[in-house]
């Protein structure tokens, strides 16, 4: 392991020696070695973020460590050179295929990752349903729409949610973009979604509550996801639409989008059970946070290579 001195760290991070010492003494920098009165700091240590940047937000104690570490990696990334347009496009294209594959697979789509990539290029996969091809294309278009919303700084509204849903359900003209008119059940769930006449009012409240939400984005987005799925406002496509909205919220706040893996689906479902059976949202908040952290770290590694 390569180390730097307190002085070198203070120069690199643009903060005083005294502040670096304090951070070392408080255990805020991972991997620090104390030698007598001096400290050795790992060469690749991240600059701890200023606690003040989280100030003003309501952060429950249990999430503080995770959110601070996420925001430290994000701050470090923001200091690095920006990705070029070509690099960004490449990363987005790769993400798009994987996200489309995983999100659709969770809902029973039979296309493999490779087949999803081909279907998005317009290739028809032998012996796979047309519906699965259309779902891939619909999800791709919905994600690109989400990206355009972020670029144009369009705030979340019920209209935006219905638009996303319209793209997800592009092959279902009579259901797309409209709230359901019949009761639904979620397979294996503890929660019964509300009666249809309650959907508009609950959706309106869910969206309007965002305007006075003072939590960290990760918690806000995870809670929105839990509550949105609990309302299950559409007749179909709630899972896919909900994961797209989750990403819209993350990207609007400058975080990378996340891809709930098909392989992690049991853990993902268990997050809903914890919330609706035990009133504990933390598994979903932690799962979303860990996904964001992993993705940010992946970007950082890319820029270090
Ligand atoms: N216990 C639960 N309580 C609330 N929501 C849940 C629960 N378990 C899973 N979900 C959410 O519901 C989604 C699946 O719901 P459902 O099977 O009704 O799908 P859908 O409305 O047809 O939408 P899609 O086809 O995109 O899933 C999951 O992907 C998840 O987001």
Helix content: 55-70%
Physical arrangement of strands within the biggest beta sheet: 1-3-2
- The N- and C-terminal alpha carbons lie at a distance of 17 Å
- Estimate the global geometry from the Cα principal axes: globular
Number of strands: 3
List bound small molecules: adenosine-5'-triphosphate
> What's the main sheet like?
3 strands, antiparallel
* Mean pLDDT score: 94
Cα radius of gyration in angstroms: 22 Å
Structural class: mainly alpha
Spans of at least 5 consecutive residues with low confidence:
none
Annotation field: number of helices: 12
Strand content: under 5%
The arrangement of helices and strands along the chain is EHHEEHHHHHHHHHH
Question: If you had to describe this structure to a student in words, what would you say it looks like?
Answer:
The chain has 12 helices and 3 strands. The chain is mainly α. A 3-stranded antiparallel sheet has the order 1-3-2. Strand 2 and strand 3 (38-42) form a beta hairpin. Adenosine-5'-triphosphate binds next to helix 9, helix 10 and helix 11.
């Amino acid at each position: 392991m390569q180390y730097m001195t307190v002085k070198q760290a203070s120069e690199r991070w643009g903060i005083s020696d005294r502040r670096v010492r304090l951070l070392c003494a408080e255990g805020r920098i991972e991997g620090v070695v104390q030698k007598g009165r001096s400290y050795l700091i790992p060469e690749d240590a991240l600059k701890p973020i200023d606690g003040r940047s989280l100030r003003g937000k309501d952060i429950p104690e249990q999430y503080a460590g995770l959110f601070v570490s996420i925001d430290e990696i994000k701050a470090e990334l923001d200091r690095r050179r920006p990705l070029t347009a070509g690099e960004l496009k490449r990363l987005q294209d790769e993400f798009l295929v994987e996200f489309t594959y995983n999100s659709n697979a969770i809902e029973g789509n039979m296309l493999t990752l490779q087949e999803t990539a081909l279907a998005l290029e317009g290739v028809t996969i032998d012996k796979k349903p047309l519906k699965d091809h259309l779902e891939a294309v619909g999800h791709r278009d919905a994600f690109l729409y989400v990206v355009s919303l972020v670029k144009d700084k369009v705030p979340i509204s019920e209209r935006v949610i219905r638009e996303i849903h319209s793209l997800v359900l592009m092959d279902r003209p009579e259901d797309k973009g409209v709230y359901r008119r019949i009761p639904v059940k979620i397979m294996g769930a503890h929660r019964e979604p509300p009666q249809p006449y309650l959907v508009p009012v609950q959706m309106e409240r869910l969206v309007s509550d965002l305007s006075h939400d003072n939590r960290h984005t990760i918690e806000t987005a995870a809670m929105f996801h839990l509550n949105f799925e609990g309302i299950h406002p559409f007749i179909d496509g709630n899972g896919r639409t909900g994961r797209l909205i989750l990403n819209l919220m993350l990207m609007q706040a400058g975080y990378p989008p996340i891809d709930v893996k098909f392989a992690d689906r049991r853990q993902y479902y268990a997050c809903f059970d914890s919330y609706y059976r035990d009133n504990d949202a933390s598994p979903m908040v932690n799962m979303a946070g860990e996904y964001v952290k992993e993705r940010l770290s992946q970007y950082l590694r890319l820029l270090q290579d």
